[in-house]
Amino acid sequence: MSSKRHSIVPPVSQSGPKPPVQFSSSITIADSAILTGANLITISTESVIHPRAKIESLAGRINIGRRCVVQERATIGAVGSAGKITEAAVTLGDYVTVEVAVSIEAGDTIIGEGTTIGVGSRVGAGAVIGKHCTITPHSDIKAGVRIPDYSVVYSNGTRRVDKRPVAEQLKYKGLARQIDVLRRMIPSNPAKFM
Amino acid sequence: MSSRRAPRGEYIETDTGNKVARKATLVGTQNIMLGGKTVIQPEVMIRGDLIRSIQSSTSSSAAGAPPNNTAVAIGRYCFLSRGACLRPPGRHYKGAFTYMPLRIGDHVFVGLGSVIQAASIGSHVHIGARVVVGEFAIIKDYVRVLDGTVVPPNMVVPSFTIIAGQPARVIGEVPEGGHEAFELRELYKTVGNNPHPAPS
Amino acid sequence: MAPLPFSPYTFIQCPCSDSTLLARPADAKSPTGADAEEDERTFDPRAPRSNYSLYPLEYLLYCEDCHQIRCPRCVSEEIATYYCPSCLFEVPSSNLKSEGNRCTRSCFQCPICIGPLSVTTQETRHPDANLLSADNAATPHSGGFSLTCSYCHWSSTEIGVDFDKPNGIHAQLAKIRNGGESRLTAKERKERRKELSHRGDSAAAAAAREEIEEQVPDLENQFANLKSFYNSQLADPTAADNGLSTLGDLGFSSPSSLSRIMNLYTGGKISDNKAKSRLGAIREALTPEEGLLVANLDEAALISQLHQSEHCDTASMAQITSQPPNLGEPALHGASRFTSSLRPIPHLLRTKRSKRCPVCRHIISKPEPKVQTTRFRIRLVAGSYIPSISIKPLTLPGPSGSSSSNPSDLLISLKPVHYLLTFKNPIFETIKVTLATPAATPGRFPSKVTVLCPQFDIDANTDVWDEALKDNDRSDKSSRNSGGTTRQRRGTEAGYQLEVGKIWERGRNWVSIVVEVVPASLRLEDGGMLREDEDILEIPMFVRIEWEAENAGDDGGIVPGAGGKDKDQKEKRELAYWCVLGLGKIKQN
């Protein structure tokens, strides 16, 4: 079964010139991640970009905080329906997890620290999601919506306040461990994007 | 994608009858086990690179055998539709983080764009389109997951159930006469480099 | 208009909807119920009753002894196994009586979103200990355990419930109220009380008693109290001499009146009655100990709480109704208004059931009792006895028929369309199929229907290996010019004229025939509205199959259809039923 090649990854056309990037030396970015656009993409300490994750800076700067995980097929900075160009298209705080096939649209969109965006969700342009939120899979956060800290958003649009005692340290430690493992598994190739 | 027509046919057909689309993304192929006669359509993604980082205590003690690095094991006659994504589930275990293998039985259909992070999926399972199966979910045999379902992490779905909803709940039972509908032999024939037409 | 594309369907009518057929087991001569009048009556798929008798083929079973179709509505079910859908443990039926139909291990659902709850260690309990979290992790599970929803992260700590052990959560939860207060189960309460009554009336005992009574009686305890109270009333012999004999005659709630009434009907002696009628009526419960619960009509506290809470703190109807009954939470007496009083929901058990024919009582479906196996000991499904019917729109090259190729396309009124019906024979004998449809569909908008070939034979379902070989042969030839082209050729050869009485195509064990339909005009003279689903073109079709079966000795069972013929002889069998073909939607103009 095992072929000589370690992966079958069909090439993806990199449209346009490489966007300017500012990477921390400790990040992990898969060779097959896709970075496009003309504006600066900043990825901070120990963040992980999975294969086939897509970061577009067409509509402004993209800021990814520390120890963020962007999973495969997620699109950060998608030019949404609004299509407006802003200074900071998308800003992810520290410890943000963006799961598979999430789309975060550009336009001053902010995701707060410690928030997890569930599989297949969409975050509209200009939405501001607070800290430590949980967005369940297949949710649709409409453009411009503000979601307070510690919210749980269900896919049917209802919300709830997460009343658990705050346990940031624990969560952060968990994420750090996960990132530790991912760093060993995902061959990082930041040079490709520089 | 690339505009150049692939002259060699859309699929790679292996000795065991697997049909793997050239435009599928398989990361870490050495850790992906295909049982044979399995179809992997274009734009499918399988994360074979996310291997277990802690060997379970029982297997490591077993006569120093080489570590089993299988990340995704798929049985026979499975069908992964376009855009599906298989990814091993990960968790914290004894103070460390590790991915665990994702095991899929025979005759498992995975619909368009579904994301599977289950611990195990039995045989004769139909997963519709745009389904999310959360981490460490266990889906037993003869289960039908309707389109758009979100199976929450750790959920156990017993045999002969039909589930739907976000989060998933049991909404029905697979009737006795519906077992044969899970067979994917015919569907297997309809794709590949020289597909047979679907039977009328 | 139609967000979902229409996919053609076939529903089959179970004979149980015809009460006369159930009353007498399928007659040897006419399992078809071939009375003249019945034949003339066309089955109307839109009749209100039809909803309850039409099933897709997969849902139908077949009784080999009655030679008849059986549906989920008419079979009688017997529960073989109870099990928890989450831990997949079998629950003995004896436990069911004492513990109810929910899992008593540690399987719970989230009261907010019904996602599964898992037991998690609760290191997070002391937010002030954050800085010491490394040390905390070292000491094993210092903070106890809680149930956490893996979907929405609800945690039992939100209702103030945590556990000492990670297992036996159900038993632990029964002793904890929301907020962490401990709660006595009915059994404990009884024991405690007994203990107190044994000890004298010391001050300490009185205080303890007070403590018990002070606990708001929850539903479960109240029920237990009431039950024991009435049991003692029934058993108490002194109640009989309680005076009140005249009132007792009027009492309806006494065991004596009940027995008197029973005696009236069973012809007991009146003198006896008189003696018994002196029994007093059972009195009502008077104290909380006896199960009296005074309704709390003062809802001021509740209202003020509602004022202070947000929308997401109040429980939705779905959340309240999914709460199990007899919960230990006093707030759930009526219905809980706040999410803070919801309780984790123990998983409802599921069952494996065997099914019996309603007429001859033979088992027609029987699963293996073990929870983890998916095998069946007996599984007589209709699909292995009667032909399946699949529907495909037929496109013919021609001036008019070129556009309507998409099956999801709407049908255009008065424009003839053709459908290909493919019958697949599941049995090992050649079958003869006879079809009958009304010339026009029933209902307000009759569409015209013509079955071009109402009678044909289908070859036997031969060995699977033959199929594989033949399939290879055929597909080799036809893989280049697919089946579609052969059909087209045939259409042109016939000069775009479908031959009446000829089958369209045949294979090893299948036959395709053509049905011509002229969809009705949906125009209403009085400009009224269409009723629900009136734009769907449904054709009732009577299917009759005849075949010769080997009368292999059905030892033990009486074969109603056999009629005492020789065993070696081939025996003629027939089966007839109505089915409904849903072909498409007619376009509304």
Question: What's the gist of this structure?
Answer:
The complex is a heterotrimer of chains A (194), B (200) and C (589). In chain A, 9% of the residues lie in helices and 31% in strands. By secondary structure, chain A is mainly beta.
Walk me through this protein's architecture.
The complex is a heterotrimer of chains A (194), B (200) and C (589). Chain A has one helix and 22 strands. Chain A has a single domain (21-184), classed as Hexapeptide repeat proteins (UDP N-Acetylglucosamine Acyltransferase, domain 1, 3 Solenoid), CATH 2.160.10.10. Chain A is mostly beta strands. In chain A, strand 21 and strand 22 (159-161) form a beta hairpin. The longest helix of chain B has 5 residues, at 185-189. Chain B is 4% helix and 34% strand. Chain B has one domain (11-57, 66-189): Hexapeptide repeat proteins (UDP N-Acetylglucosamine Acyltransferase, domain 1), CATH 2.160.10.10. Among the domains of chain C are: 9-60 and 381-585, no CATH class; 102-186 and 313-327 and 340-346, no CATH class. Chain C has helices at 19-23, 36-40, 93-99, 133-138, 169-174, 186-198, 203-214, 219-235, 245-250, 255-266, 270-276, 300-308, 317-321, 464-478, 483-493; strands at 9-13, 54-56, 61-63, 68-70, 76-83, 90-91, 108-109, 116-121, 145-149, 345-346, 350-356, 363-367, 376-379, 388-394, 417-424, 431-436, 448-451, 455-458, 505-506, 510-518, 536-550, 570-585. In chain C, the strands form five sheets. In chain C, strands 2-1-22-21-16-18 form a six-stranded antiparallel beta sheet, with no helix packed on it. The N and C termini of chain C lie close together (12 Å). Chain A binds chain B through residues 1-3, 5-13, 32, 51-52, 72-73, 100-101, 118-120, 136-138, 154-156, 174, 177-178, 180-181, 184-186, and chain B through 1-2, 20, 22-30, 32-34, 45, 47-51, 53, 85, 87, 90, 92, 96-99, 113, 115, 130, 132, 134, 148, 150, 166-167. Chain B: InterPro entries: DCTN5, Trimer_LpxA-like_sf.
